[in-house]
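Re: the 314-residue chain
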Amino acid sequence: MNDKALTIIKWIFDIVLIIVLSFMYYLNEPVNSPRVIYIPEGSIGKIITQMHSKNYNVSKLDIFLLRIFGSPQSGWIDMKTTLNSRWDFLYKLTTAKAALQNITLIPGETTYIFFDQLAEQLRLDRDTLKKEYALQTSQIEGAFVPNTYRLPIGITEKVVIRVLLNESNLQMKKVSQKIFGLYNEKKWFQFVTIASIIEKESANIQEMPLVSSVIYNRLKKGMKLQMDGTLNYGQYSHIKVTPLRIREDTSTYNTYRYSGLPENPVCNVSFNAIRAAIFPAKSDYLYFMRSKKGTHDFSCNYSTHLDNISRATK
């Protein structure tokens, strides 16, 4: 074999070696990401493009590599750590799954109590949850839609708030557009405020339009609402309202002290309560009292209301 042939072989070998070493170097590059990430349904190219938009260290070459590893699984992926080699990162995209936890927000629950629940069940920091909530929404209360959410263990406070707000916002927009043909956030949360009182005061779904009518009737007449449920805000969600509490609470939630609606919703509300706030029953009722049966007796005048109180307290 002549020198020219040997030189060509050497060059080919060197080129192949450089390619192999470059490839190995590329596969061992670090990829930073949250420990838990969400993979949407879609093509490999779409997934890589989305990751690139989130500043993950990925490139178009990874589209080819993923086709070798296999298709990424849609859903939550637990990467186990925030720093992986590219090889591990791509491999985990196709094989790993995050352990999911059911988190149920019940209608009428306050965000204050919900943060306690999230912190305990997902092992998160409550103060950080509160901080992220304030950063991501201007709504003091009522921004979450009561539902059962499947969230991954290992998710960060920032991401869990973003996921819950995004999902809730999508649901609110959908219902609003169905009813009104559009979504006006300011108008919508005015109804959420009324719905939150309905949620706290109603004994069941069937009562909601009637409770709603009482609210509107009292507002129309310039009467104070004087409803205990408005004082079950924030940390007081499950605290019995007493005469002492009514006298001492100076917040705008105290509808015994202040006229009109509270400045903010009292709690997170169901769509049943929102529909009742938008479509109240037609009635002349101004009062209601919980009976011994657990439901409410509604009345148009104060004397009948006093009789209802007497029967309920005997």
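The chain has a mean pLDDT of 91.
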